Every structure is written in C-alpha cells, then in structure tokens.
Amino acid sequence: MSNYILSCCSTADLDEQHLNARDINYICFHFELDGNDYPDDLGKSISFKDFYDSMAKGAMTKTSQVSVGEYVEYFESFLKDGKDVLHATLSSGISGTLNSATIARDQLKEKYPDRKLYVIDSLAASAGYGLLMNKLADLRDDGMSIDDLYQWAIEHRLECQHWFFVSDLKYLIRGGRVSKVAGTIGNVLNICPLMNVDYQGRLIVRSKVRGKSAVIKAQVEKMVQLAEGGIDYDGDCYISNSDCYDDARAVADLIEEKFPKMKGKVKIYSIGTTIGSHTGPGTVALFFWGSQRID
Are 93 and 118 in contact (CB under 8 A)? Predict the structure, then answer.
C-alpha cells in the first residue's frame, strides 16, 4: 500500500466503484440545472439519465469549478494525517481549476512544510482524464514513489488520446464553441464534428463529418492511426457517452474487432454533469494511449 494519496476531480468521469477499487480519491465540481445547485458527484445527486433528459427538454445548465477554500479543506484532510498528496486536475485548457488547486497548495505549504503536495495539470478531460488516473494508480501500486509518479505524469500525459463527436450542435452553439449560423446549417446537413483535445488541453474541431455512421468510422480510424502499436495496441480503452449508450456500444464493437490484443474489453462510462453541461446529450468520446499530442 502506498504512503501517499492519489487524487483527481469528479470530472475524470469514472464511476465511484472504479475510483474506490483503484483507491483514487476525488473532489466534486458543481453545476446548476434550471437554477438548482448540485454537486457533480458521479450521478448520485441526480442520475445521468434525468440530467440529460432535462437538457433535451430545454433545461439550462451552468457549471462551477472547485473553489480554493474547498481545495484547502480537501487537501488538508490528508496532510494533517501525515499523508502526501498527488492531485491531477481537469485540463487547464477547459477549466481554471488548476489555478485554484495551485493557490490552495501554496497556502498549505507553510502549515505542512514536511508534507509533499503535488498538483498536476492533466491536460485531459472526461474518461481520458480517468484513463490517465487509472495508469497512475497502476504505477503507484507497482511501487512508484510520489516524486517519480509526478514526473511520469508530466512526461506522458499528452500520450492520452481523446477523440469525440457530438450529434446535436445546439449545445456547442449555446456554449459559444460553434457559431449559431454554422451550427444551424450543420444540424440541417446532419454534420457531426469530430473533435479532440489538443496538446494544450483545449477542445478542437478537427473535421466535419456528415452522418453518425460516418463519424463513428472516422473516430475508430483515428485510433488505428494513433494508438500505441497500431492494431497491435494492448492497452486500456475507455469510452464515455452522454445518454447515447447504443452509439458508444457501436464504437466499442468496432474497436474490439479491430484491436484483438487490447487489454480486456472497452470500458464504457457516462459523461458527467460538468462536461455534459457543455456537450449535451448525444456525445461519444473515445480514449486510448497513443502518439503524443503535438498540435
């Protein structure tokens, strides 16, 4: 058993059973649904089904990151018990939570000078962030020290590939990621943007594919092109989805067929309420280890 805490935000979008089994601690973001406040607590306060049904019916959402004070209280709960902490945050290209966690770390340094508190920008999101956390748990369990684990994460975090598509552009229009004119035309033409998370941890539209069947094939082809070892890939593969399990399953089936050496089956998770507030229902995201993101 390690003598340090491995930690992330709820936006890693793994389920609680997985996080508990891997001994990964987490702190919750927050969201509003039609003016009502909830913690982003992995679907416990409100089910993902109810959340996405509400969005589909027109409910407005708003998200907020973990505050400095919340981070201080959270980190201190471990430090006061004599534990060191390695905490990876949601990508700084998506959220300002890295800044809050860093301020909290600096505030606690004087009070706990003998403790180590590392804060890492994951440059990842959703279950891609979760895929990184799972690998860090593997390395921790193999006996890697907190110092070496921090360095490994810095050196390898960009090897976690993220590729996803959305089937309804209205939520990207609402969030300002797609213009109203382009989004309206795109919906009429059945355009499904294929996006990824770039080397700075930002969401970037890479291509505009017409039709869901075509974008699913394009998404899987990205894994063929970029996965570590190509079709001989033998690592983990995660998919997260926002209330469109059948689409996620279709992607998983293609991947399991094309990558026979993969480590087990594709694991499918729900996109949580923080990320889902911006992408809306109908999003499928694919995550795997591969070439380092360079653009």
Answer: no
At residue 221, φ and ψ (nearest 5 deg) are -65, -30
* Helix 97-109 / helix 68-79 crossing angle, nearest 10 deg: 50
pTM value is: 0.94
From CA 187, how far away is CA 191, in angstroms rounded? 6
Average pLDDT of the residues of the chain? 93
**pLDDT > 90? residue 185:** no
Count of other CB atoms within 10 angstroms of residue 290: 20
Instruction: For residue 226, list its beta bridge partners.
Output: none
The residue assigned the tokens 């280890």 is: 289
**% of the chain beyond a pLDDT of 90:** 86
How far is CA 152 from each of CA 84, 145, 235, rounded to the nearest angstrom?
Answer: 17, 10, 17
Mind listing the pLDDT tens digit for each residue in 81-127? Answer: 999 999 999 999 999 999 999 999 999 999 999 999 999 999 999 99
Identity of the amino acid at 236: D
Cβ–Cβ < 8 Å for 68, 104: yes
Instruction: Supply φ then ψ for residue 64, to 5 degrees.
Output: -140, 140
239-261 mean pLDDT: 97
115: phi > 0 → left, psi -120 to 50 → alpha, else beta; which? beta
What is the biggest distance separating any 2 CA atoms in the chain, rounded to whole angstroms?
Answer: 60
Beta pairing, strands 61-64 & 36-39:
unpaired
Written as six digits, the tokens of 7 are 């930690």
How far is Cα 202 from Cα 197, in angstroms, rounded to an integer? Answer: 5
Beta bridge pairs of residue 62: 32
Instruction: Report DSSP state, residue 293.
Output: P
